[in-house]
Amino acid sequence: MENIAVLGTQWGDEGKGKITDYLTSRADVVVRYQGGNNAGHTVKFDGKKYALHLLPSGILNPKTINVMANGMVINPEAFYDELSKLENSFNLYISDRAHIVLPYHIEKDKRNETKDNIGTTHKGIGPTYEDKYGRRGVRVADFVGPHNKEILTKKFEENKAYLSNVDINELVSKYLELANFMKSYVKDTSYLLNEMVHTKKILFEGAQGVLLCIDHGTFPYVTSSSPTAASIPINTGLAPWFIKGAIGVTKAYSTRVGNGPFPSELFGELADKIRIIGNEFGTTTGRPRRIGWLDTVVINYSKRVSGISTLAITLLDVLTGLDEIKIVTKYLLDGKEIDSIPASVKDFERCEPMTISLPGWKEDITQVKSFDELPTNAKNYIKKIEELTGIPVSIVSVGPDRIQTIEVKPVL
Ligand code: GDP
Ligand code: IMO
Ligand code: MG
Hints:
By secondary structure, the chain is α/β, with parallel strands linked by helices.
């Protein structure tokens, strides 16, 4: 396998964790390059289920080298909690240039939400990136460095308004302990990756999805980083030409958590049915996910702005039993057909979905091991996605477990 990115082509929760874990055994290194513990990546194998938020999905494989690169924002408490729960041995490095999420970022996020109503995960992600770009954030190197007491005290004092009922000295002590815990994992990961890239295979694990990208997503209903393949070089310190392609993880239908326009959205009984069968409740916040048909305007948009070389279609089993399955292929905006996403959220809100309809299948597909064994209508659904997007499908996932994965074509 080449060095590739695994990224979500929709609004997150496409099954990136599952696909990253599935491909981990073919790579030596797994890198998370953006976001923080707003992500929730589920991995299931040998009867066990893991929910990863900050840690790369390669962490469950003792042979894999895991990197949390400079583009990430890291909550030290969440890091401590997640790492302490791991039962296996692991290999992990954190970039000395990643930024630290502090308690006042979380409080700011919550307070902003009372007016902005984006539907964030309340993990402090936006305010931490704001501080990074405002040049007032705290980098990992300083968080674990010799002057950390002074730096933390200053930051907590400056942000006292967001730390009501908190004793600042106690908070500093707590964060110094967390810094101590983090210290042994810290490295110049760009240096490390550049050394490894000549001898090892690297998998880049995106968080969120391309439609949640700060630049190309459905702004302002987005996250504050870029999950696109294009963001990997800057977020890791590795040249773009080392990355050979991207596998676009695509749910067989669509989901969205949080607010913002969602043209293919379904309501009522059908949405409830898919939500229950697909267990569509947020891995991070537990919120019920909004449900919609697959939307190839969205997939083609992701293909264009991010570059997607091949698709992994996930949760296909969830559609089993439906008489008909629809795919949104275009939008109608003010009476005109369009095949891309308008930049203004006001325009996107007015887009009406134009759909095609395909017959469903009734057979249980959760134990199917090859593409040929799938029911004809399931095969036709996959072929239709290939036709509408022009992207070859290399993986079809028919259940949450690692073994419920069909490889249709070689993955790059
Ligand atoms: P991620 O954020 O992209 O890693 O996705 P999440 O883990 O948040 O959400 C995907 C959910 O779908 C998780 O509960 C997975 O265990 C589950 N899942 C992944 N692939 C499949 C599949 O093919 N079929 C079913 N039924 N569930 C799947
Ligand atoms: P994974 O990696 C789905 C959404 C939030 C909200 C918006 C901004 O599991 O796919 P933020 O807290 O990032 O400022 O929230 O982005 N969001 C996600 N939705 N999956 C995710 O991650 C998400 N991470 C953020 O719901 O709409
Ligand atoms: Mg998720």
